[in-house]
Specification:
Dihydrodipicolinate Reductase, domain 2, Rossmann fold, 18 strands, 452 residues, alpha/beta, 2 domains, binds NADP nicotinamide-adenine-dinucleotide phosphate
């Protein structure tokens, strides 16, 4: 029998913006079983009909790429139950109503993850049930460990799905194909040939009214503790035996364990926040003047750090991770820069080393090479073999939900990865909190802070 999906936090922003559209895409693709139901749980009063109207609006706003009839079909599968997710009795009622063996999705603020899981523990879940937990998973190593312990009292690890939707993006998945389905790259994918790796997620978007969450998180916790470290793990991991949940999770955890936190915090990390400026013709105020921001928190809107990986393959290669808001351009890519050739036989002309880029939005791959010039054949010219990929039918959340409902963990983050990711960033957070690294500023619309 198909497992019902129970979304705790089913009236929140994530549900409206990503989960409902993802489910509508699945319905449209014929990938939802006829008897698939979705029960949303939220705190406020409301009937099924009220919830369906809200869902219809959300789908109109965020899923207009899905045909109307598929959206309507999804709305017909939805139900709503009022209740507090931290109260066992309320959860029991919701699970009884959902019936069967549920897949429970915690689309909740991470401050209530633990109490919710404890309450679920009091109710108990039937064999075969699964739980998905959103990010950020915990607030540090110890907290992630405790959260894992609570989860493992409830369910076996293979029924737990820690969500990081970047693992389901086309660009990140492409890395697997590129690396492990081609002969070309793997022999040069190591410290002998790679000079450095940059993992960048620069956004032009500013705070966009999300101070409630963002001002207590900041760029490091929001992006570099999870999404960007997952990308690092996929760039740097050893080849897996199979593209399945256990194989990928083991290889990624292995490489995360080998990541050494920045050696010199003042040199290897950078934090900053934006000041007033213009981004793509739009005036943005100072971050500190945004509604809901407490300037005294010193929250960074830009974070950067460089780490190395202590293993045979990567010893000495810097991996630089950076992400910021309100920057001049949306630059979102994984960049692998190769070493220069050992000898250049082209007179005194210099040649840039080869660069492989995997870019997001538009998703693509490009390999920048030196070729003989079209004019003088003995001159070098820089050319790129560039490919822009067509938009995938399923969004990242559509794909995540498909795998989750099928009980497949290929896109899920493991307990060890969640803990290791905190181990890497905790010393940075501590150094920043202790004032060892100054909080710099950069004007909105610029390239970001200038180090030094
Ligand atoms: N929004 C995004 O773009 C996004 C992207 C990636 C990941 N995430 C993650 O997704 C999770 C949810 O984020 P969000 O943006 O959707 O937050 P949100 O808009 O604040 O929604 C939170 C939901 O949780 C419910 N809730 C909170 N406490 C509750 C309680 N004690 N009992 C019952 N329901 C409770 C709220 O119900 P009421 O409305 O009834 O209070 C609401 O439905 C977070 O972990 C976030 O980090 C969000």
């Amino acid at each position: 029998m198909t497992r019902p999906l129970v979304v705790l936090g089913g009236s929140g922003d994530l549900t409206g913006r990503f989960l409902l559209p993802g489910l509508a895409e699945l319905d449209d693709a014929g990938e939802l079983a006829d008897d698939q139901t979705v029960l949303a749980v939220g705190r406020h009063d409301g009937s099924d009909d009220d919830y369906r109207s809200w869902a219809r609006e959300q789908l109109g706003e965020h899923a207009d790429h899905v045909p109307e009839e598929s959206r309507a079909r999804l709305v017909g599968r939805l139900g709503y139950q009022q209740g507090s997710v931290t109260e066992a009795d309320d959860l029991r009622r919701a699970l009884e109503r959902a019936g069967g063996v549920p897949v429970v999705y915690l689309a909740l603020p991470n401050t209530v993850f633990r109490d919710t899981l404890e309450a679920l523990g009091q109710v108990g879940l039937p064999e075969g049930a699964a739980v998905a937990v959103e990010k950020p998973f915990g607030t540090g190593v110890e907290d992630a460990r405790e959260l894992n312990a609570v989860l493992h009292r409830l369910l076996p690890e293979d029924a737990v799905h820690r969500v990081d939707h970047f693992t389901a993006t086309q660009t990140v998945l492409n890395l697997l194909g590129l690396r492990f389905a081609n002969r070309l790259f793997e022999p040069v994918w190591n410290a002998g040939h790679v000079e450095r790796v940059d993992i960048v997620f620069d956004e032009t978007l500013g705070l966009e009214g999300r101070a409630g969450y963002y001002d207590t998180a900041g760029a490091l916790r929001d992006m570099l503790q999870n999404h960007l470290l997952q990308q690092l793990a996929l760039v740097a991991m050893e080849p897996p035996a199979a593209i399945d949940g256990p194989s990928l999770a083991a290889r990624r955890a292995d490489v995360l364990r080998a990541v050494r936190p920045p050696a010199d915090m003042a040199r290897d990390t950078l934090r900053a926040r934006y000041t007033a400026g213009t981004v793509a013709g739009r005036e943005l105020p100072d971050y500190t003047a945004e509604e809901g921001v407490d300037p005294d928190r010193g929250t960074e809107t830009y974070a950067e750090y460089t780490v190395t990986i202590d293993n045979w393959r990567w010893a000495g290669v810097p991996f630089r991770l950076r992400s910021g808001k309100a920057l001049g351009a949306d630059r979102q890519e994984m960049v692998i820069r190769f070493k220069p050739v050992p000898h250049l036989a082209f007179g005194d002309g210099a040649a840039e080393p080869d660069v492989l880029r995997l870019t997001f939005d538009p998703d693509g791959v490009s390999l920048e090479l030196n070729l003989n010039g079209a004019g003088d054949p003995f001159d070098l010219e820089r050319r790129a073999l560039a490919l822009e990929l067509p938009t995938r039918r399923l969004s990242a959340y559509g794909l995540l939900l498909r795998e989750l409902l099928a009980g497949n963990r290929v896109l899920s983050v493991s307990a060890a990865e969640a803990e290791e990711s905190w181990r890497i960033v905790e010393p940075i957070l501590a150094a920043w909190a202790a004032g060892e690294v100054p909080l710099r500023e950069y004007p909105a619309g610029s390239d970001g802070p200038v180090p030094g």
